[in-house]
Specification:
It is a single chain. The chain is built from 16 helices and 33 strands. The chain is of the alpha+beta class. The structure holds guanosine-5'-triphosphate (GTP), sulfopyruvate and manganese (II) ion. The site of sulfopyruvate has 9 residues, from helix 7 and helix 8. Monomer.
């Protein structure tokens, strides 16, 4: 292929690019790119401008290489099949290299920064041989916005480049915003599969190159990211979990704001009143679905601002203002269908990159839950023939779609607002088959922080581990907090107390996943969740009633709008029932878990736990 002036070859100069053609004069950036190129030894360096032309060129190259397969039924769309060992985030290989283990805290894998840096220098040495290194400048949030942040990803994965173009504001505008004195996060990524070894022998590429030995490494003190060995989602699109949550949470703590694993929606009531809600649910527990909810109750409108990450900052007027730092959605495919999430189905009709889903014989994608009818023959996510008798799922349970927010039919007009939207309510939820009620309002901010800190959820396929196993996932941030979780709880308490009483968001807990003894979901979920959203908005307005139960405030019999809903009375009762025996057992377990945080745990949390214990009937 012809070389453009944005590409530099090493053959021209001695052992590294002159970088004379680089479209920036930023010295720190040029020095870093040059140092990384010397370490990783790519054939060439390409500076990405974020143009459609560049996207088309890269996708064409990936089609030729077998990395992408066109999806003819959806214009501009492609399927990627990852290596079967590279299908989700790898939490056991995710490291927080804080100065001390205590700073990383008991929920993170800590590594001593200098030792890890040394180890990674060895791992990255020559890791891009035979490949192109792309320089990917990006902004999280609108370029130049007061809440936005800049970063540059260096990667040898064209899949990461095209995904970053969808997921972030990527390209020349972001690069131009990086001046000598702006802060930006250096994010280095390699799939760890060089095509030429140290003796100069070459080997063929793979459709999805990766390395069995993975590192997702974060240096919070210097705000750097180094990711090696994986091409997948949160491991490889470094603006997302690595930057916008792990590094950003560290920035947020020192600057008095919040970086959260939250969706953001704009809700308009039948009277035209607008409320913004932010909600934290663990991975694959319903954020994308709630973000794109189509209300089943008349007169209500829900619009999308974000589906995965929220940056929330106390504004000059005392309100908590939030932006979605992303520009696209990397959503779970299985379970996404016309009956559950029609908005998403409309959104992914074109210009979408699918990963690890099945292909139909007539050139479309398919996954479990997309249609009621199951196709008789498919090519599964591994590329094998598949029929309903195969005994496996056709799509990987963590198969995903990557699509621009601009294509979302429910995107809100204030999606792009650089100053963010005012958050009126914060929701915490998990996947709980028992104990946790459909909806619960916290008595105050401290109680709300307790609700966030004590989220437990059945594990999903979004990370390696045993699916279905209940685990603590405080604030849905267990894999994403970049510092000590106990300090993170304290930070939440402190941000809340910095807000004036009348501006502080109300806090709620929700659970769409409670099941009956027979194992079926007690609540229909999806669009019907609008009924819960309605009660939350009415509570914010001060117009809906609530009843106090030991756990907090719940809608009384008449406060939840059940008009036209076909849920048996018995199920509704069960959705709010509190079993003292199992709650006391849950509190014993929580108390035990609290001890893992030692002295750093804010006293407010055990106090809240004791209050709850005192309120429970003796079991
Ligand atoms: P990440 O992108 O991993 O952070 O996940 P997410 O929280 O955005 O999860 P998502 O909305 O994609 O939901 C994941 C799974 O939960 C899908 O299979 C959905 O079909 C299912 N789900 C979402 N909302 C509901 C609901 O209200 N009820 C039930 N029963 N399932 C739901
Ligand atoms: C999650 O796992 O919470 C995701 C997908 O949103 S990933 O980008 O892989 O983290
Ligand atoms: Mn997520």
């Amino acid at each position: 292929t012809a070389r453009t002036d944005r590409e530099q070859s090493f053959e021209d100069s001695s052992d590294r690019p002159t970088l004379s053609a680089a479209p920036t004069s930023n010295r720190r950036l040029l020095a870093w790119v040059s140092d990384v190129a010397r370490l990783t030894q790519p054939d060439q360096v390409v500076w990405c401008d974020g143009s459609q032309e560049e996207f088309d060129r890269l996708t064409a190259e990936m089609v030729a290489a077998g990395t992408l397969i066109p999806v003819p039924k959806r214009p501009g769309s492609f399927l990627a099949r990852s290596s079967s060992s590279d299908v989700a985030r790898v939490e056991s290989r995710t490291f927080i290299a804080a100065a001390t283990q205590e700073e990383a805290g008991p929920t993170n894998n800590w590594r001593e920064p200098n030792a890890l840096r040394e180890e990674l220098n060895g791992v990255f040495s020559g890791s891009m041989r035979g490949r192109t290194m792309y320089v990917v400048p990006f902004s999280m949030g609108p370029v130049g916005g007061p809440i936005s942040q800049l970063g540059v990803q260096l990667t040898d994965s064209p899949y990461a480049v095209v995904s970053m173009r969808i997921m972030t504001r990527m390209g020349q505008a972001a690069l131009d915003a990086i001046t000598e004195d702006t802060a930006w996060v250096p994010a280095l990524h390699s799939v760890g599969y060089p095509l030429v070894d140290t003796l100069g022998r070459s080997r063929p590429d793979m459709a999805w190159p990766c390395n069995e030995h993975k590192y997702i490494a974060h240096f919070p003190d210097t705000r750097e990211i180094m990711s090696f060995g994986s091409g997948y989602g949160g491991n490889a699109l470094l603006g997302k979990k690595c930057f916008a949550l792990r590094i950003a949470s560290v920035m947020a703590r020192s600057e008095g704001w919040l970086a959260e694993h939250m969706l953001i929606i704009k809700v308009t009531s039948p009277e035209g009143r607008v409320h913004h809600l932010a909600a934290a649910f663990p991975s694959a527990c319903g954020k994308t679905n709630l973000a794109m909810l189509q209300p089943t109750i008349p007169g209500w409108k829900v619009e999308t601002i974000g589906d995965d990450i929220a940056w929330m900052r106390p504004g000059p007027d005392g309100t908590l203002r939030a932006i979605n730092p992303e520009a696209g959605f990397f959503g779970v495919a299985p379970g996404t269908g016309w009956s559950t999430n029609p908005t998403a189905m409309q959104m992914i009709g074109e210009n979408t990159i699918f990963t690890n889903v099945a292909l139909t014989d007539d050139g479309d994608v398919w996954w479990e839950g997309m249609t009621d009818e199951v196709p008789e023959h498919l090519t599964d996510w591994r590329g094998n023939d598949w029929t309903p008798e195969s005994g496996t799922t056709a799509a990987h349970p963590n198969g995903r779609f990557t699509v621009s927010a601009a294509q979302c039919p429910s995107i809100a007009d204030d999606f792009d607002a650089p100053e963010g939207v005012v958050i009126d309510a914060v929701l915490f939820g998990g996947r709980r088959r028992s104990n946790v009620p459909l909806v619960l309002e916290a008595r105050d901010w401290e109680h709300g922080v307790y609700l966030g800190a004590t989220i437990s959820s059945e594990q999903t396929a979004a990370a390696e581990g045993t699916v279905g196993e209940l685990r603590h996932d405080p604030f849905a941030m267990l894999p994403f907090a970049g510092y000590n979780m106990a300090d993170y709880f304290a930070h939440w308490l402190s941000v809340g107390s910095s807000l004036p009483d009348d501006k502080r968001p109300k806090v709620f807990g929700v659970n769409w996943f409670r099941r009956g003894d027979d194992g079926r979901f007690l609540w229909p979920g999806f669009g019907e969740n609008s009924r819960v959203v309605e009660w939350i908005c009415r509570r914010v307005e001060g117009s809906a009633g609530a009843e106090e139960i030991p756990l907090g405030l719940v809608p009384g019999v008449d406060a939840l709008n059940l008009e036209g809903l076909d849920v048996p009375v018995g199920d509704l009762e069960e959705l709010f029932s509190v079993d003292p025996t199992s709650w006391n057992a849950e509190l014993d377990q929580l108390e035990q878990w609290f001890t893992t945080f030692g002295e750093r745990l804010p006293a407010e949390l055990p106090t809240q736990l004791q209050t709850l214990r005192d309120r429970l009937p003796r079991g």
